Every structure is written in C-alpha cells, then in structure tokens.
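Hi, does anyone understand the following?
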Amino acid sequence: MTQKPKKAKSLIDYKINLKIKIASLWTALMFLYIYADYFRLMTPNKLEKMMNLQTPLGTTTPELLVIFSVILIIPALMIFLSIFLKPQLNKWLNILISFLYAIISLLIIVTSIGNEWQMFFVIFNIIELIILVLIIYLVWNWPRHNP
C-alpha cells in the first residue's frame, strides 16, 4: 500500500501597503548611515581628526553640527512621514528628498573612490543609492484609483 506524498502548502504572500514599503526603505537607509559612520570611526586618523574638531567639510562649528544633524534628522522623519502623509504630498516629498540624498551619495562615492580605506564607505553609499532610486521608482509609480 502506497501513500500519496503530501503537497507542501504554499506560503501566503501578503500584499504590503506602499507606504510601509517606503518607510521600510527609509529605515534601512538609516541603519546604513549609522553603520557606515560607525565603521568610518575605525579608519586611520579619524578619531584624532574628530578630537581635533575636524570634519570632511572643515573645522567643527556649532552651525556645521546643526547642518549634520538636519542631514540625519530628515531621513529619520521620512520613516514616519512616509506612513502618515497624504499620497500626493508623500509622493513628491519622497521624490525630492530621495533625489537630494542620491546626489549626496554620488558625491561621496566620487570623492571616496581611490582611497582603499574608504572602499567600504563606497559600498555603503552604492547600496544607499540603490535604496534611494528604489524609493523614487516606487513613489513615481504610485497606484492610482480607476475612475
């Protein structure tokens, strides 16, 4: 007597709301920013430069720290805003912010290539760039209601 082999039940693939996808991408981006900056502390002379109040943009000033803070606050807020904003504003804000941050990533990639101690940073920025392009792609193709 032979038994029929049991069929494996297929897994349910839930449809994920676009706002949740976008917020998840911003969350991933924030983790990349944090870890890239953390690993960058382990490069030669980085801690000494920090102790001497030197940044890639010059001497540390209160104004420069505010600028750096805003640069990190914006994508952190985008996690929240991507879920709670109305679709039209959400779409254009995500496109604008993603585009600006993509430019920053490209500039970092261009200025870091050739420095072996910065290659990990280039890799982080390439992945960040991919995420930003994916955000732009997803919101550009935001589904519309059929009349």
In short: The chain has a mean pLDDT of 93. The two ends are 59 Å apart (CA to CA). The chain has five helices and two strands.
